[in-house]
Amino acid sequence: MSVIDLFMELQNGLSADQDLREEIRRVVQTLEQTAREILILLHSVHHESGLNSIPEKCLKAREHFKTVRTQLAALATKFPSDQYYRYHDQWRFVLQRLVFQASFLVYLESEELVTRDAVAEILGIESDREKGFHLDIEDYLSGVLNLASELSRLAVNSVTAGDYARPLRIATFINELDFGFRLLNLKNDSLRKRYDGLKYDVKKIEEVVYDLSIRGLSKSQATPSEEKS
Predict the structure, then answer these.
(1) Residues 6+ apart with CB under 8 A from 109
(2) Burial letters for 57-83: b for 16+ Cβ neighbours within 10 Å, e otherwise?
(3) Is 139:108 a contact under the CB 8 Å cutoff?
(4) What is the pLDDT of residues 152-180, one digit of tens each?
(5) Which of 55, 64, 176, 222 could pair covalently with 226 via S-S, beta carbons 3.0-4.6 A apart?
(6) Per residue in 44-66, pLDDT tens?
(7) What is the distance between the alpha carbons of residues 91 and 133, in angstroms, rounded to a whole number?
(8) Collapsing DSSP states into helix, strand and coil, what is residue 126?
(9) Can you list the positions of beta strands (E) in the chain?
(10) Are 212 and 167 contacting, i.e. CB atoms less than 8 angstroms apart?
């Protein structure tokens, strides 16, 4: 093979890779649009009217996630399954955003932390990397860390709306989340920086709870468990 032929062959390989990346980019753009629609819907719970209609908002969000499943299924067909990490950077950020939205949705429904397997099911992808297109552990953790920031905001807005019990439950949840992350040996620089931000979320929520306490409002509303008892 001549030098010219060699470089022509290399160019063909580069062109094929660029074409594939462009196909992936187009699918990712549709995912980003759907993620924006879900975010707008879930953000509405920060308003008093939204807090009063959380079940309806969650049902609508579930419908949007059906579209996400279709879009991710299309994305998974664009490249060989064994080349997942070669193209991972192209959808990493939108996938982390979708993990956050799924975790926020589940929290609003049950006030529990969603598992990685459950998120993968919501998104219609695998949790086991050996099975192809999957939810990477670090993408899951990044999305969960974004949940903490959203809940600290919800705690403040709940007080504004006159819901004084919710911030107390959020505080308990965030403290448990913080303890869980302390058990991890985080070596990923990006993930470590995001975890550092969790400290500020914990502090912000503690300030909300303290303010409720000194104003005598922390006991003015019973939690659901207290009401049942």
Answers:
(1) 55, 58
(2) bbeebeebbeebeebbeebbebbeeee
(3) no
(4) 999 999 998 889 999 999 999 999 999 99
(5) 222
(6) 999 878 788 899 999 999 999 99
(7) 11
(8) strand
(9) none
(10) yes
